[in-house]
Every structure is written in structure tokens, then in C-alpha cells.
Amino acid sequence: MKFGRILRDSPDGKIARLVVVEPEKGRVIDLARAAALHYAAKLHATPDAARRFANAAFPGSMAEALAMGDYLADQSNDIVAARGDDASIEIDGVDWLPASDPPVLRDGLNFLGHIKNWSAKMGRTVPDAMERIIPYCQNSPSMVIGNNAIVPWPGYIKRMDYELELGWVIGRRSTNVTPDNALDSVFGVTLYNDFSGRDLQQDEVAIGMGGTKAKNFAHGIGPWITTLDEFKDVYSIEMEVRLNGETKGKGVSKDILWRVEEVLSFISLGEYLQPGDVIGSGTLEGGSALEHDIILNPGDVIELEAKGVGILRNVLGTPQEGLWWPTAQPGKLS
Amino acid sequence: MKFGRILRDSPDGKIARLVVVEPEKGRVIDLARAAALHYAAKLHATPDAARRFANAAFPGSMAEALAMGDYLADQSNDIVAARGDDASIEIDGVDWLPASDPPVLRDGLNFLGHIKNWSAKMGRTVPDAMERIIPYCQNSPSMVIGNNAIVPWPGYIKRMDYELELGWVIGRRSTNVTPDNALDSVFGVTLYNDFSGRDLQQDEVAIGMGGTKAKNFAHGIGPWITTLDEFKDVYSIEMEVRLNGETKGKGVSKDILWRVEEVLSFISLGEYLQPGDVIGSGTLEGGSALEHDIILNPGDVIELEAKGVGILRNVLGTPQEGLWWPTAQPGKLS
Predict the structure, then answer these.
(1) Fewest C-beta atoms under 10 Å: which of A117, A312, B103, B301?
(2) CATH 3.30.420.40 describes domain B105-320
(3) What is the largest CA-CA distance in chain A?
(4) How far is B326 from chain A (nearest CA, A)?
């Protein structure tokens, strides 16, 4: 199945709603609404109680919905079969939210071609430490954006870039998982566009504490999540990125440094994978503009596509000028 | 005032409760309980309604409580004055939770002496990029621990370390703040022990994507939060670290690369500071064992103290062996 999040009008203003997505039928189904109708009929519940129960079970937060473990995946089929027609909304014109609201947002660096290309373009040597421990970073989840969203472009970023990545969405709170059971923690797959400021990234990589301002202005997550059972093999997912309609990079989710199962296991060591967490797969070889010496401009339309998921479309905004920036302190550390 | 979080028994098992801390009176006050009593009397509310309202206003999550903006700071004085005696618990024996449950946990690198000492011990050159942009990292908040907690010690860390830091706790959702108003976003000050695995950190710094397994096994936050108004000056807070009762480092919160106001402003650029977020000040000069060539062992007691806050005490646990670890792939990237 496919699950997403949309905004709907309510007496409380716009509110987030969890939806089942049926692209082939051109509709999304408001899950809490369908569930309330279903429970009222099936359990002889009062409409008010059914609504309260349904909203607790299927909240607008993906992280909260997934925190109830298998409930979402287990119940949704029956609910949609019973009352999907009574709670469906035409997919065109839907106001998409990021497919998840991740408690923690991490991003890998795993496709061999991208590691080499990126390092060459940035003038960096690939550290052999990546052959010993599994590279990934933590991003700030406060700026996740959904399908069709305008990408905020802070003026301190001069060289904007996109990154074509899958996002592994965690379904189970789990720790110290191992490669043989790691995929049990994955709820599904989405697309992740890890927008990046390449100029600023130089200094951030030199400092070695992870990306900060070069990364945490926009993280595209969506358009929705396809549950893992719909994929035969996590290493044969076809991916593509288009810039203003023109294909700029494509490939398949293989040729990686570490297996997905190893990446998930490593991340879970000594801490928790949490429901709703999104873990970027790392950028596919050729999945960034940097690798092709392409310069991006305001208004550019970036589409990431993955077979079995869908298309995550975003439009670059206009640089926001006039922001405060630290005054350099040359010699302060010498 | 001082605010913390504790665990209490309930018919639902142990639950988190927000407390006002009065160390000088040897007690903590259960804020939701005191508020329910206060509202019932003052507003002529029914006991049940007063309890529901009080628990919504003063939830066990610090992030959720602070998300209501100024409400916590504005109301607590009156509530404690009116009904503190009827909802107080002896401070000894209290089961402390991390003082905040941060949506995002960040950590600076800011004390000049520590930057130089740490770099020398790690055999690294201090990058001049730190004179241009403000260094900080994102940590995973899934392993925050509170006062008196045993520090989990994953077996893949050989050289354990502590770090003496202040934690700036965010009180307001805010973005693009500037040095002249940055401190308005700060609710208060806590202690932050950024436990670190120094051996593993070498490879993580070489990769340059931020600390991962060398950092995200334990983040000590507590014992509680002292509101910012109780400090005359954020640059004159006296700090100290003790190992098994012996002072190993001490100093004052000055001698920094970037002003606190600049650090907060930089972090807020293009994204959000969120209520409950904790931002580590960076380690005080001499605030780590590494800087003194001290080797830590299981059972060691680490106490961080800050004047005006209190003492955050933790005990190192026993290394957990038998965890999965990736098998090195020498040559895979060449």
C-alpha cells in the first residue's frame, strides 16, 4: 500500500491528515474518516466515539501513526475496502505534506559512483575510514517539505543542488538490529531530495562535524511512502532525476559501498531507530547537479522518480537575501 | 525557577511528570498536580476537568510543555505559591528523567582551549573554516539520559570520555534570529554531558559527516533546567567536572570562538529552533578526560556542575559486548 499526508481545511484551520494513496485510481483516502465510518458500522460505535478512536489510531503525524506498530499496515486494507469510497479525495490538487515527519532524519553516503564523483568535484580525497565504518549524517528535521513545495533558498547559498535518494522509512522502534533482521524495521520507501549548498559545504566538510547550513534549509520527502512488501528487491529500484523535464541522472539502487541491511544495523547500534525516522539512501551516481557541472536557478523544477514509489516534484524558490551571517574572524584560532 | 522531569508510579506504570525544583527546600513540586488543585479552587473547576486541563498545560514532555510558549514560565510561580506544599515530593530518591526530551539535539565546539587541546590529542589541524562558519553538529536525541542514570557503554567503544558542557534549552519556535534577540529564544540552562568514544571518533572525523556511533549512545541532560533570568551573564557561569569525586577540570563559560548569541543565530538560519531543543555549549577547556590523558573505567562516577544549575551525576556502565559490527572492506573504494 501507499501512505501519505495531506493538509485539509477544518474549523481549526488547515490540519494534517493521513491518507492511503491510490494513484492508479486517481484518489487518496482520508484514513481517519474512513476508519470512523467503518468502526461506527462494524463495532456499533457512536459516531463521536468512532471519530475519536479513528483519529487516535490514524493521526496526521506519520511518526505517531507508525508508533502504534503494525496497526497502520494491518488495519488499512479492511478500512479502505469497506469505506474507501466514502472518504476519497481526487488526487489532483491535493495539498501534500512531507510523507513523514521524522523524529530523526539521517542521510547515508553509499553509492560508489557518487562518492567518487562528489569527492572529485569537491577536491577531496575519499577517506579510507569509509571502508571501516558506515558513513551517514544526522540532518535537522525541522525543514522537511513535501511534494510540490517551493524549496526555500536562503541567500547565503550560492550554488544550490539537488540529490536523488531513496528514503527508508522506519516502522518499528528497534535497537542493535543485525543485517539478517534489519529490514523488519523498515515500513516503506519514499523519495528523499537532500537539497544542498555546494559552496558552503566546502567549509562544513573541512570542519568535519556534518552538514549544517548547507543542508538544513530543505529536505524533500515524498510524495508518499510505498510499503516495503511492494518491492521484490531493495537493490533493483529504478530511479531518475529530471531538471525542468529533462533527465539528468538515472540508475538502479545497487553499486553501493555498504548493504542497506548493514547501514540500518549500524545506525541502530547503541541507539534507537524510531517510527517515522527517515534514512536517506545516499545520492545515486549522477544524482546531483554538481556531478554534471549544472548550475541551478530559481524556478527550476526538480523531479525525483522511483519505480514503485512515484514522483517527488519541487520548485526552487527565490534566494532570500538580507539574512544575518557571522563576520569572519581570521586568525582567531592561531 | 528550576524545571525538571521525573518518573512517578501510576496505574499506567511509570509516567513522566514535569516538576518545579526547589533544591534549597529539598523538594520538587509535581506541576500538573499542583495546577489541578489550584485551578479547581481558583476557577471553580471540577476536579476532573482541572486535572485534564493541568495535564494538557503541564505534560511530562518538556518539549511539549515549552511548545505552549510563555505559559510554563508565566503560570508556575502562582501555582507553586498556591499549592506547591500540596504537591511536593522529597528531592532525595527522585527518579530523574533527562531535563528535556529535545526534538533536535545539537552540540557546539566553541571553547578555544578545548578546540586546541582536542585537535592536538586527536592529531588534527584546526581548520580555519571555523573562523568563517560556526561549528556545531546534530546528535541523535534517542539516547538522552538523566541525572543518576547509568551510562550505556557499547562494547565497540574502547576509549570512553565525558564532556563538560552547558546546554542551552530553547523555549520558542524561532527562525533567522539575530545576535541582538537570540537569547529571547532560550528558556534556560542545563548541563550537557556529551559522552564520546575517542577511538571511534578518529574515523568519524576523517569522514567529516559528524559523530555517529562515537556519540549517540548517551547524552546526559540535567539534572534540571534553570531559567535564563537567574543568570546575570551567560559568560560567567562557573563550571566543573569531577571524576570519582576529584576535580578534573574547571573554569568559566568565556574564552569562546563565537558568542552564544552568534551560535544561536547561526543555528536558526534557514530552519527552526524548536521548544525543548538542547544546544550544547561545546566542551570547556580541560572538560574532557582526553585532554588530561585520563582513561575511564566502568563504574566511574562523573559529575558535571554549573553554578546556578546543579550537579549532573552519571555512572559509567559495563561495556556491552557481542554487538554486530561491520566487516571492513579494504580497497573497496580504490
Answers:
(1) B301
(2) no
(3) 75
(4) 7
